[in-house]
From TrEMBL:
UniProt cross-references to InterPro entries, sorted A to Z: MoaB/Mog-like_dom_sf, MoaB/Mog_dom, MoeA-like, MoeA_C_domain_IV_sf, MoeA_linker/N, MoeA_linker/N_sf
Family: Belongs to the MoeA family.
Organism lineage string: Bacteria, Bacillati, Actinomycetota, Actinomycetes, Micrococcales
UniProt keyword annotation of Ribonucleoprotein present: no
Gene3D superfamilies documented for this protein: MoaB/Mog-like domain (3.40.980.10), MoeA, C-terminal, domain IV (2.40.340.10), Molybdopterin biosynthesis moea protein, domain 2 (3.90.105.10), Molybdopterin biosynthesis moea protein, domain 3 (2.170.190.11)
Name assigned to this protein: Molybdopterin molybdenumtransferase
PANTHER family: GEPHYRIN, MOLYBDOPTERIN BIOSYNTHESIS PROTEIN
Role played: Catalyzes the insertion of molybdate into adenylated molybdopterin with the concomitant release of AMP.
Stretches the record annotates as Disordered: 360-379
């Protein structure tokens, strides 16, 4: 059996194969629900701050100037505002300075401590603030200390500092820091273009009238939401009945139009053990038709030389999975049960295929209904959506049957019950992903 980690790795390789990049203006990297990822490495050719500057609105002085003491009016040089180049500061004087303004050069003796830097005394430590721009009188609380409230050149970014590596998320702070060294553009991975395909004769689109044995399609809406939040660019949705030739035709004709062409199809349903599994049947049909595939002849025992590989992962829900190529398109086949579809996107696709930042992991104490033990399948990691209570514990009150989608609507965590656990006891602690 393929492990969850190995399968994620396989999907990651898929992502690398499909990835392409483009330059984006830094001011426009944040136009997607997920932070985009850098496709280049950036080292700084600049220092940030670019010059020593003031952290406060106040008065810049030499801390060891014997003329600068509390209680005695000190004459002022012209004020320096942010964006203006100051005159040098001379002995016996103070200079009004605004936050972000450049600290002046010192044009005077080193006094008794030649390692000493100028400092800024905030306006709150003066008697009259900026009301009098000829003299300043410092209060007894004023502190004269080398470098106080000075933001030093290069203290945020120095020459040659690594600002981002390939694959780093362009978070707001990283995007801003790239701009802070004067960059205008960055190479980013383009979000993968995804065609979402639902399958099954029983599935009817909301808005149409379902037949007596039909259900509404909930997977398409849920998957489009989950994939978009993961960072995919969903280019469209299709529904295919349980006829392999109709499925293949629908996808081929979708792809024939360059303006809407997808990089990858994500389908739901039609992959497990039944007699009418349309994804399996479509793959078999392509084998019969001798369709060439680049996926390398997946070694599925039922389907040698198939473009698709069908497998079962040790997790529940989300066990049945398929990956490969169908209708000439890279293809990821998810199981059709609605909760299985969402668990698969969360656990398998979100970070590995779409590059979303990993979820935070946390440890949660679980409470079972009435304190009775709950069973868990040995040999499979059980994934359970739950809502975190204020005390950091969760109640496993929702059934984990994979058709009960509505119950998961308020989930804030996905609890992962390890493979070797057969019974979940009230008060047990497990790892969870914070959603
Ligand atoms: N004999 C066995 N049967 C099944 C096994 C098994 O091991 N042996 N595995 C079960 C598990 S686990 C899952 S998960 C499902 C996966 O099956 P498929 O991926 O082939 O999905 P379908 O059979 O097409 O559909 C499953 C279920 O989900 C409903 N569905 C499908 N599409 C939608 C949609 N767009 N919106 C809402 N609901 C949808 C569908 O009606 C089925 O009820 O196989 C089990 N069977
Ligand atoms: O494992 Mo299936 O994916 O329960 O519903």
């Amino acid at each position: 059996m393929v492990s969850i980690a190995d399968y994620r790795e396989k999907l990651f390789d898929f992502l690398l194969l499909l990835s392409s990049w483009e330059y984006r203006d830094l001011a426009q990297v944040a136009t997607h629900p997920m932070p985009l990822r850098a496709a280049q490495h950036v080292k700084s050719a600049e220092q940030v701050p670019r010059f020593n500057n003031s952290q406060m609105d106040g008065f810049v002085v030499h801390p060891n100037d014997p003329e600068v003491v509390a209680g005695k009016p000190v004459p002022l040089l012209p004020m320096v505002a942010a964006g203006h180049n100051p005159e040098p500061l001379t002995p016996g004087f103070a200079m009004p300075i605004m936050t972000g303004a450049k600290i002046p050069e010192w044009d005077g003796p080193a006094f008794d401590d030649d390692g000493c830097d100028l400092c800024v005394v905030p306006v709150e430590e003066t008697v009259a603030g900026f009301d009098d721009l000829t003299h300043v009188t410092f209060t007894p609380q004023a502190t004269f200390e080398s470098g106080r409230f000075v933001r030093y050149r290069g203290s945020d970014i120095d020459y040659d500092d690594e600002l981002c590596a390939v694959g780093d998320h362009l978070t707001p702070a990283r995007t801003g820091s790239l701009a802070s060294v004067g960059l205008t553009q960055i190479a980013v991975f383009k979000p993968l273009r995804v065609l979402v395909v639902s399958t099954g004769d029983e599935v009817c689109q909301p808005g149409l009238r379902p037949g007596a044995a039909q259900i509404y399609d909930s997977n398409t809406s849920a998957a489009v939401a989950a994939l978009s939040v993961a960072g995919a660019h969903v280019v469209g949705t299709l529904h295919a009945p349980d006829h392999p030739d109709l499925l293949l035709d629908a996808v081929r004709s979708w792809q024939a139009d360059d303006t809407r062409r997808a990089d990858v199809v994500v389908s739901m349903g039609g992959i497990s053990m039944g007699a009418r599994e349309v994804i399996r049947l479509a793959s078999e049909l392509e084998v019969q038709q001798g369709v060439e595939n680049w996926y390398g002849g997946a070694q599925s025992p039922r389907l040698p030389n198939s473009g698709m590989e069908f497998c079962r992962l040790p997790m529940q829900p989300g066990g049945p999975q398929a990956v490969g190529q169908l209708a000439g398109v890279p293809w990821v086949g998810l199981p059709g049960n609605p909760v299985s579809t969402l668990v698969s996107i969360e656990v398998l696709l979100r970070t590995s295929m779409f590059g979303a930042p990993p979820r935070n992991r946390m440890s949660v104490t679980v409470h079972t209904p009435d304190g009775d033990p709950l069973s868990s399948p040995v040999g499979k990691t059980q994934m359970r959506f739950a809502r975190l209570d204020a005390d950091g514990s969760v109640r496993l009150e929702w059934s984990n049957s994979s058709h009960l989608l509505h119950m998961q609507a308020d989930a804030t965590v996905l609890v992962m019950i390890p493979q070797d656990v057969s019974a979940i006891e009230d008060g047990d602690t497990f790892e969870a992903l914070a959603l």
